[in-house]
Design goal:
The complex is a heterodimer. Chain A is mainly α. Chain A has 29 helices and two strands. Chain A has four domains: 280 residues, no CATH class; 60 residues; 194 residues, Orthogonal Bundle (MetI-like fold), CATH 1.10.3720; 97 residues, no CATH class. Chain A has a two-stranded antiparallel ribbon with strand order 1-2. In chain A, helix 11 packs antiparallel against helix 12. Chain A starts with a helix and ends with a helix. In chain B, helix 3 packs across helix 14 and helix 10 runs antiparallel to helix 11. Chain B is of the alpha/beta class. The chains are: A mainly alpha, B alpha/beta. Chains A and B meet through helix 1, helix 2, helix 8 and helix 28 of A and helix 1, helix 2, helix 4, helix 17 and helix 18 of B.
C-alpha cells in the first residue's frame, strides 16, 4: 500500500502536472469560448439599431451555420445507417466530380449575390467578380472533398457549415437591404429554398426520409394551425406564425414520422427545401423594421442574451435530462420498446409490490409494545391539555405539559405503524416523518433553550458542525459507531462498548457497580424531591416533565439493581456473556439508526434558521406578555411559535425535500439490505446495477413528483417571505 | 476603434477554435487508426492530452497499426500495472500500441461507452453473463479465427466465452473459489487431518467443536455486495450435492430458483453455519462481519478454517508466510466434494472485442495464450515485490515455475478438476446475481427467513 502511495507522489508527478495543465487549458477554452460567445452576441445586437443590413447578414449566416453543424454533426443522424461520405452523396446527386458541382452551385449563388451587390452599390461592375469569387471558392471547397487533396480534420468539420453560412449570410444581406413586401417575399422564399435544396443535396442517404406525404401534410397543417392560432390568441398577425409552424410541422412530419434511410434523393431535396423556403418566406414576410422596431428588437434580445447562459445551463442540466427520464420511464429495460405505464405498474403493482408495500403484518400493530405505550401517552397528554385549558378558559391548550407527552405518544404510535407495515415506499415515509420531526423539533428546542445563554455560540457551533460533513463521510463515521464485534472480543463500536459496559456494570458486584447504584439512587431521590415540591406548588408546568423523568429513572434503577440492564445474556454454563446489538442488521429498527445519521446532520440546519427567526421575534411582544403575567412556557407556545411559523414551514419543507431523496446513507451502510431500502437507492440499483433503465427512470419520476409539491410550496413560501 | 475591438475578438475566437481543433485532431487520428469512426472528441480532457502524444509518435512510426485501447475492472496498481507493462512490451515487438485503462466503475461505464458509440477496442469482462448480453445485443464482435485457435485454455474455461455456439470471449484470468484456508501447524498440533470428503469435513468440524475450537470463520458483509460469500457457498454446495448438470439448469433458469434441490443446498449452508459453536464472526454476526475480516481471526486461532477464493491471500495479515512449511504458514486445501467428481467453482475474466481490426484481434490472441499468463504473473509478482501476485491462469503450457508454492497448489487443483463451473451469480441476470440472490440470501443468513422463503423471493424477481 505504502509503496503505491510513494509511487503516486513520486514518479507520476509529471503526469499529474500534465493533467492539471490539460484541465486548466480546457477550462480556459470553455470560459473563453463562452465569454466570447456572449460578448459576440452582444456586439451583434449592437448592429440592430445602427446597421441593420450587417446584422441581418451576420445573424442569418450564423443561424445557417448552426443549422449546418447540427445537421452534419449530429452523430445520432450519422449513425442511423451505413456510412456514406458527403463526397458520395454529391456524386449521387449530380454525378459530376465535387469541385465542379461546388463551383457551379456557388457560382450561381455568386451571380445572385453579385447582382444584389451591384444594385446596392449602383455599380454593375460588381456582378462578375463576386460571381467568379464564389465559383472559385466552390471549386476550392469541392477540392477539399476529393481524395487527392486532404486538408485534414479542420476542413472536414468546417467546410460545410462555412458554405451554408456564406449562403445564409448572403441571403440575409440581400433581405436586410430590400424594402417592400412584394420583393422581399419572393427573395426570402427563393433564398430559403436554395439553402434548403443545398441541405437536401448533401443529405446523406441514411438520413433521407421515406416521406409519407399525407402524414407530412397533416403535421404541417397542425403545426401551422398551432402557431397561427397562438399568434391570433396573442393578438399578432397570424401568417408568420403559420409559416414557422408549418416549417416545424413539416420537419416533424417528413423526418420524425418517416423511416430514415431508404427514401429517394428527390424526396430528400423536397423534404429539406420546403421548411427552409417557409422559414425564408417568414423572414421576408414583414417589411424592414423601422427605427422603433429595431430598438424593440434590440431591447428584447438583450434580456434574452442576459438570461441565455442561465436558461441554457438549466435546460441542459435539468430540463433535458428530466424530459429524457420521463421518456425512458415509458420504455423497457434496454430502452427499446414502449411499455406504457408498465414500469409504474411494476413499482406500485406487480413486480416490486412486495418491496414497495408489505402490509402483511398490519394486524400486529395493535398488539405491538410501541402501540401499547403510545396510546396512553397520547391520552395523558390530551387530559393534561384539557385540564390546563380549564384554567385558561379554553377547551384544550397546547403547552409543554400537554404537548410533550402527546408528541412522544404520537411519535411512538407512528413508529409502531412503520415497524409493522414495511416496504420501500413505507421506509421513505418513515424517513420523512422521523427525520423531519426530530431534527426540526431538536433544532427548535436547542434554538429556544440556547437563546441568550452564555454558551449559545459554542453550543450552536458544535451542533452546526455535522452540516459540514458529507453524507458519505457521516455514514462511514456512524458505521464505526454502530460496529459490533464478536462478544468474546472488546467492542470497537462506541454504542456497543457502552451497552456491553453497562451490562457488565449492572450485573457486576465490584466497587464500580456499588458506586453507580448509589449515584442512581441519589439522583432518583433528588428528582422525587423536585416532584414533590412541584406538586405542593401546584405548578403543572413543572410536574409533567419531572414525572416523566421520575418514571424513567425509577425503571432504569430497578433494572440496574434488579435483573440487570445492558448488553449481556446468560451463557450455557450460567455465566454472563456479552451481548451486542447489531444496529445495522436488525430490522426494523436499523432504519431508525440510519435516520439518526441524517438527524445528526440536519438538526444544525434547523437550529440555525429557527434561532435567527426566534431572535427576530419583536421584544415588545414577549415583554408585554411577561407584564401580563405569562409564564415562559406560555410565551413560547403562544407568541414565539406563531411568530416563527412561516420560517418553521420553510425549514420543514426543506428538510422533507432532503429526506425524500436520501440515498448516500443507505447506499453506504446497507445498500438497501436488511429491509432498509429507500426509493433513491432502489432507483440507482435498478438503473445502474440491474441495467433496468425503465424501472429506474420510473422510480426517479415517482421521486421527482413526490418532491415537487413540497418544492413548489417551499419556493412560494420563500418568495412570499422576501416580498 | 470599435472595429478594432471586433477584430481582436474574432482573432481570439479563431485562436480558440484552432486550439480546440488541434486537441480534437489527435483523437481523430486515433480513431481512424483504430478504425472506429463513431468516437469523436468527447473523451475526457486527460485522454486528449495523451492522445496528442500518441498522434506524434504514430507519425514517426510509419508502419505502426495504431493504438488498441483496453478497459477492464482491474485497477489495482499491481494488476493494472502488470497488464499495461506486459501488453506494452508485447506491443513494442509487434508495432502495436496498447493502452489499458482500469476502471473502478467498469460495469456502469462500459454500458455508457457502448451506448454512446465509443467503446474501447477490447474490454475485459468479469462476468460471462454480461458478455453474453452484449453478444446478443450485437455490441461485441465474434473473435477472429486466429484468436479462437490461439486460445490455450482448457475447454472448460473457453466455454465461458462461448455464446450460442460462437466464441465471443477468451479467458485471460482465473479465480479459484473452492478453497479452504487453514494453518497446517495448528491442524497438526490438534491432530486434525485435511478432509477428503464433505462428510469428513462435517465430522472434522464436529470434532473441533467438541475440542472447544471454533471450526469456521464466516463473514458475508461486503458493502454494497453484501451476501456474495453466501452465494459462493451455495454454488459450491449445488455443485457438490446435485452435480454440474443441475448447476447449469439452475444458472440457465431451466429449473426455477426455488427448485427443491437448490433450496436443499441453500438450507445445508444455513444449517451448517447455524450449528452452535460452528462459526466465529468477528463482527458479531455473520451478516455483520466483513468478508475481509476473516484473515486475522484465522491467524489468531479464533477459528480453524475459512472457505474463500484464491485471491483471499490479499486479506491474510501482512507478514504471514504461505505454504512454506513454517510455523505460522497459511495453506489451502480443496473444499471437499460429495460424489468424488471434484467439481471446482471458479471465476475469472474474459477479453472480448468491440471491433474486428487486425490489431485488436492480435492483442486478443496474445492475451488468450500462455505467454501472456506467464509474463503477467512475472510482472505482477515483481510489482508485489515478491509477494503473492493475486493473479492466476489456467492456460495450458505455461511455465509453473513463475508461480509461488501456494499458487502452484491452486494450479494443481485446477489441473485435477474435470468439472469447472463459473460463479453462478455472475452468470445470472443482474437483478438476481447482483441483487436478490445477495439480499435475500443475506436476510436468510440473518435469520429473517428460511432458505425456501429466500428462494421463492429470488425466483419471483427473476426477470
Amino acid at each position: 500500500m505504502w509503496a503505491e502511495q510513494k509511487g503516486f507522489l513520486g514518479e507520476d508527478v509529471g503526469e499529474i502536472v500534465d493533467k492539471i495543465i490539460t484541465t486548466l487549458i480546457g477550462v480556459a477554452i470553455a470560459v473563453g469560448v463562452s465569454a466570447g460567445l456572449w460578448v459576440g452576441v452582444n456586439l451583434l445586437f449592437h448592429q440592430t439599431t445602427t446597421n441593420w443590413r450587417k446584422f441581418s447578414a451576420i445573424a442569418t449566416g450564423i443561424c445557417a451555420a448552426i443549422a449546418a453543424i447540427v445537421l452534419d454533426g449530429n452523430r445520432a443522424l450519422k449513425n442511423l445507417g451505413p456510412q456514406q461520405s458527403i463526397t458520395d452523396a454529391l456524386d449521387d446527386v449530380a454525378n459530376v466530380s465535387p469541385p465542379v458541382t461546388m463551383a457551379i452551385l456557388l457560382g450561381v449563388v455568386g451571380l445572385a449575390v453579385g447582382k444584389a451587390v451591384s444594385a446596392y452599390r449602383g455599380n454593375p461592375a460588381f456582378l462578375l467578380p463576386v460571381a467568379a469569387g464564389f465559383a472559385v471558392l466552390g471549386l476550392l471547397l469541392g477540392l477539399t472533398r476529393t481524395e487527392e487533396v486532404d486538408l485534414g480534420r479542420f476542413a472536414d468539420i468546417f467546410w460545410w457549415p462555412l458554405i451554408v453560412a456564406l449562403l445564409g449570410g448572403a441571403a440575409g444581406w440581400i433581405l436586410g437591404g430590400i424594402e417592400g413586401a412584394t420583393t422581399r417575399r419572393p427573395i426570402g422564399l427563393g433564398a430559403g429554398a436554395g439553402v434548403g435544396l443545398l441541405f437536401g443535396a448533401f443529405l446523406t442517404n441514411r438520413a433521407r426520409p421515406e416521406v409519407d406525404i399525407v402524414a407530412t401534410v397533416v403535421a404541417t397543417l397542425i403545426g401551422a394551425a398551432l402557431l397561427g392560432g397562438l399568434a391570433t390568441v396573442r393578438k399578432r398577425a397570424p401568417i408568420p406564425g403559420v409559416l414557422i409552424g408549418g416549417a416545424l410541422g413539416w420537419i416533424v412530419g417528413a423526418f420524425g414520422l418517416a423511416d430514415l434511410g431508404g427514401g429517394p434523393s428527390g424526396w430528400g431535396l423536397i423534404a429539406m427545401a420546403v421548411p427552409f423556403a417557409l422559414i425564408g418566406l417568414r423572414i421576408g414576410w414583414n417589411d424592414l423594421p423601422d427605427v422603433v422596431q429595431r430598438a424593440q428588437i434590440d431591447a428584447k434580445a438583450r434580456s434574452w442574451i442576459f438570461l441565455g447562459p442561465a436558461v441554457g445551463f438549466i435546460s441542459l442540466t435539468v430540463i433535458v435530462p428530466l424530459l429524457r427520464t420521463i421518456y425512458l420511464s415509458f420504455l423497457d429495460e434496454r430502452s427499446e420498446n414502449y411499455v406504457g405505464f408498465g414500469n409504474y405498474a411494476d413499482i406500485f403493482g406487480n413486480r416490486l409490490n412486495e418491496e414497495s408495500f408489505d402490509l402483511d403484518n398490519w394486524s400486529n400493530l395493535f398488539t405491538s409494545r410501541l402501540f401499547l405505550i403510545g396510546i396512553p401517552l397520547l391520552i395523558i397528554g390530551g387530559i393534561i391539555g384539557v385540564l390546563v385549558g380549564r384554567t385558561t378558559g379554553n377547551a384544550f391548550t397546547l403547552s409543554s405539559p400537554s404537548s410533550v407527552p402527546m408528541a412522544i405518544g404520537f411519535f411512538i404510535l407512528a413508529f409502531a405503524l412503520f415497524t409493522t407495515v414495511r416496504g420501500t415506499v413505507i421506509n421513505n415515509l418513515w424517513w420523512v416523518f422521523t427525520v423531519t420531526l426530530v431534527s426540526t423539533g431538536l433544532g427548535l428546542a436547542i434554538a429556544a433553550l440556547a437563546d441568550r445563554t452564555k454558551l449559545e455560540k459554542v453550543a450552536k457551533a458544535l451542533i452546526f458542525m455535522p452540516m459540514a460533513i458529507s453524507f458519505v463521510g457521516a455514514s462511514i463515521i456512524w458505521r464505526a459507531v454502530y460496529t459490533a464485534r464478536d462478544p468474546s472480543k472488546a467492542q470497537t463500536g462506541v454504542l456497543n462498548a457502552i451497552w456491553v459496559g453497562l451490562g457488565r456494570l449492572s450485573t457486576g458486584s465490584g466497587l464500580p457497580t456499588l458506586i453507580a447504584s448509589a449515584v442512581l439512587l441519589l439522583a432518583l431521590a433528588v428528582l422525587i424531591g423536585v416532584l414533590v415540591r412541584a406538586v405542593v406548588r401546584k405548578s403543572l408546568d413543572g410536574v409533567a416533565p419531572v414525572t416523566v423523568g421520575v418514571i424513567l429513572l425509577t425503571w432504569f434503577t430497578y433494572r440496574f439493581l434488579g435483573p440487570g440492564i445492558g448488553g449481556f445474556r446468560t451463557g450455557a454454563n450460567d455465566e454472563q456473556v456479552a451481548d451486542t446489538i447489531l444496529f445495522v442488521q436488525n430490522s426494523p429498527f436499523n432504519s431508525f439508526w440510519l435516520m439518526v445519521i441524517l438527524i445528526w446532520i440536519q438538526t444544525g440546519f434547523a437550529m440555525v434558521i429557527l434561532s435567527a427567526a426566534i431572535k427576530a421575534v419583536p421584544a415588545e411582544l414577549t415583554e408585554a406578555a411577561r407584564v401580563d403575567g405569562a409564564t415562559e412556557g406560555q410565551i413560547f407556545w403562544r407568541i414565539t411559535i406563531p411568530q416563527i411559523l412561516p420560517t418553521l414551514g420553510v425549514v420543514i419543507t426543506t428538510i422533507i425535500v432532503v429526506v425524500m431523496k436520501v440515498f448516500d446513507i443507505v447506499k453506504v451502510i446497507t445498500n438497501g439490505q436488511f429491509e432498509t431500502q429507500v426509493l433513491a437507492n432502489q432507483m440507482f440499483n435498478e438503473a445502474f446495477s440491474f441495467r433496468n433503465r425503465g424501472v429506474g427512470s420510473a422510480l426517479a419520476i415517482v421521486l421527482f413528483l413526490s418532491v415537487l409539491p413540497v418544492m413548489v410550496y417551499n419556493i412560494r413560501r420563500m418568495q412570499a417571505e422576501e416580498a | 476603434m470599435k472595429r478594432n475591438k471586433l477584430l481582436k475578438l474574432l482573432a481570439v475566437l479563431f485562436a480558440f477554435a484552432l486550439v480546440a481543433t488541434a486537441c480534437g485532431d489527435s483523437s481523430g487520428d486515433d480513431d481512424t487508426a483504430a478504425g472506429s469512426d463513431a468516437d469523436a472528441d468527447d473523451g475526457g480532457s486527460g485522454d486528449d492530452g495523451d492522445g496528442g502524444d500518441d498522434g506524434d509518435s504514430d507519425d514517426g512510426g510509419g508502419e505502426s497499426s495504431g493504438t488498441v485501447t483496453i478497459t477492464g475492472p482491474e485497477r489495482d496498481e499491481s494488476e493494472a500495472g502488470a497488464i499495461q507493462e506486459v501488453l506494452s512490451a508485447w506491443g513494442e515487438e509487434n508495432g502495436i500500441e496498447v493502452e489499458y485503462t482500469g476502471d473502478a466503475d467498469w460495469e456502469a461505464n462500459i454500458d455508457i461507452q457502448v451506448q454512446g458509440g465509443n467503446p474501447p477496442n477490447l474490454s475485459i469482462f468479469p462476468q460471462p453473463g454480461k458478455l453474453a448480453d452484449f453478444a446478443r445485443e450485437g455490441s461485441v464482435v465474434a473473435l477472429a479465427d486466429n484468436v479462437v485457435s490461439g486460445m490455450e485454455w482448457p475447454e472448460a474455461w473457453t466455454a465461458f466465452g462461448n455464446v450460442d455456439g460462437t466464441q465471443y470471449g477468451a479467458p485471460v484470468k482465473a479465480d479459484l473459489k473452492s478453497l479452504v484456508w487453514y494453518q497446517p501447524a495448528k491442524f497438526e498440533a490438534a491432530g486434525y487431518e485435511v478432509p477428503e470428503t464433505f462428510d469428513d469435513f462435517v465430522a472434522l468440524t464436529e470434532t473441533m467443536i467438541a475440542d472447544g475450537n471454533t471450526p469456521l470463520c464466516v463473514g458475508i458483509e461486503s458493502g454494497q455486495a453484501t451476501g456474495w460469500t453466501y452465494t459462493d457457498w451455495v454454488e459450491d454446495m449445488v455443485l457438490r450435492q446435485h452435480g454440474p448438470d443441475v448447476y447449469d439448469q439452475w444458472v440457465g433458469h431451466e429449473i426455477p430458483f426455488n427448485d427443491p434441490q437448490i433450496v436443499e443446498s441453500m438450507q445445508t449452508v444455513l444449517d451448517l453455519w447455524d450449528t452452535e459453536g460452528m462459526v466465529f464472526s468477528s463482527g458479531g454476526s455473520i451478516a455483520a462481519t466483513a468478508f475481509q475480516d476473516n484473515g486475522q481471526p484465522l491467524i489468531d486461532g479464533d477459528c480453524m478454517m475459512h472457505r474463500q477464493a484464491s485471491f483471499y491471500s490479499a486479506f491474510i495479515p501482512e507478514g504471514t508466510a504461505f505454504a512454506d512449511g513454517s510455523e505460522d504458514a497459511v495453506d489451502v486445501f480443496y473444499f471437499p466434494d460429495i460424489n468424488g467428481d471434484r467439481p471446482v467453482l471458479g471465476a475469472g475474466t474474459l477479453v472480448a472485442a468491440f471491433d474486428d481490426n487486425e490489431a485488436t484481434m492480435a492483442v486478443a490472441e496474445y492475451m488468450a495464450g500462455a505467454d501472456y499468463a506467464e509474463a503477467r504473473q512475472t510482472a505482477q509478482t515483481a510489482l508485489k515485490e515478491g509477494g503473492l501476485s493475486g493473479f492466476l491462469s489456467a492456460a495450458e503450457g505455461q511455465d509453473t515455475g513463475v508461480y509461488q508454492p501456494l499458487e502452484q497448489s491452486f494450479l494443481d487443483i485446477l489441473a485435477n478438476a474435470s468439472i469447472v463451473r463459473f460463479d453462478a451469480s455472475d452468470l445470472m441476470p443482474a437483478e438476481v446475481g447482483a441483487g436478490t440472490f445477495w439480499s435475500e440470501g443475506t436476510s436468510a443468513v440473518n435469520g429473517d427467513q428460511d432458505a425456501a422463503g429466500a428462494a421463492d423471493a429470488i425466483e419471483a424477481s427473476w426477470p
